[in-house]
Amino acid sequence: MTSMFEKVADKPEARLDAWLAEAVPEHSRSRWQSLIKEGRVTVNGAPCKANQKIRAGDRAAWTVPEATAAEPQAEDISLHILYEDRNMIVINKPAGLVVHPAVGNETGTLVNALLHHCHDLTGIGGEKRPGIVHRLDKDTSGVMVVAKNEKAMNELARQFKERETAKEYLTIVWGVPYGKRGTVETTIGRNPLHRKKMAANVRNGREAVSHFEVLEALGEAALVQVKIETGRTHQIRVHMAHIKNPIIGDTVYGRARASSIKADRQMLHAAKLSLNHPVSGKRMSFEAPLPEDMKTLLTQLRTALASAKR
């Protein structure tokens, strides 16, 4: 069913798409541009363009078609839910779960699972789909927030962009970082020699800031807490490798070591996420317990360290 709406402009000489995005934040500016291009918006009863100026008193009317089914298919995949309401859902993503369908991973993803679980998706960009605000690598576990509607998606995305969220990770790295705590501040961009990898301090890279603190020194390894200000691709993995303490199990940014310590995936876990609720504005924090494989590795490291001291 198509819904019809109308609103009178109150800002003189404003761009139509910009005014609509501000006046009706349920839809993003790009979504408004699509609706205008599709001929679903009129000003004073006449066709319009996204960049045209509107004057105070102009009457904008529009129709919004019912959201279509998302292309990924719903799949009954178990989820560890930390919080859920009609605007967002927070999960503890297990290692090994891909976030979004892509070539080679068309099924069995978090999006497929959410399409099955969430029956109150109202549409994002015209599709009934969950709004992926941020991502975790396939082999990174921990807290993720997902929007259920376009308004929540826009507000959460704004918070991540404006650095209003707080993100804390736990990782087990090779060696003990110098000084036990510090800040890594570089740019991060595509590795010029290996395009599937990221690298620190590359030309045209984007600012990346990570703060680390050693929680436990474990001989040849350490348990480290990392708080990130930015959210660049592979940021923590790149930064820990940059300071010569790569994450155990990271086969992309680490290297093979002669050690009895082994890991089936990178030992990185998104332990805590704090943000403002996208509708109420209330500050909320969510925590995910350390997964069993990281607990097991910590036990092995502590045992090896104790034996070495005897």
Topology:
Layout: E1 3-8, E2 14-15, H1 16-23, H2 29-37, E3 41-43, E4 46-47, E5 53-54, E6 59-64, E7 68-69, E8 81-84, E9 88-93, H3 110-117, E10 127-128, E11 131-132, E12 141-147, H4 150-161, E13 166-174, E14 181-190, E15 198-200, E16 206-218, E17 221-228, H5 235-242, E18 268-276, E19 283-287, H6 292-309
Parallel strand pairs: 7-10, 12-18
Antiparallel strand pairs: 1-6, 2-5, 3-4, 3-6, 8-9, 9-12, 11-12, 13-17, 13-18, 14-15, 14-16, 16-17, 18-19
Would you give the CATH topology of the largest domain? Answer: Pseudouridine synthase
Largest sheet at a glance? 11 strands, mixed
C-alpha geometry:
elongated
CATH class of the largest domain: Alpha Beta
Report the sheet-strand fraction.
25-35%
Number of domains: 3
Q: Do you know the CATH architecture of the largest domain?
A: 2-Layer Sandwich
Q: Compute the gyration radius: what is it?
A: 23 Å
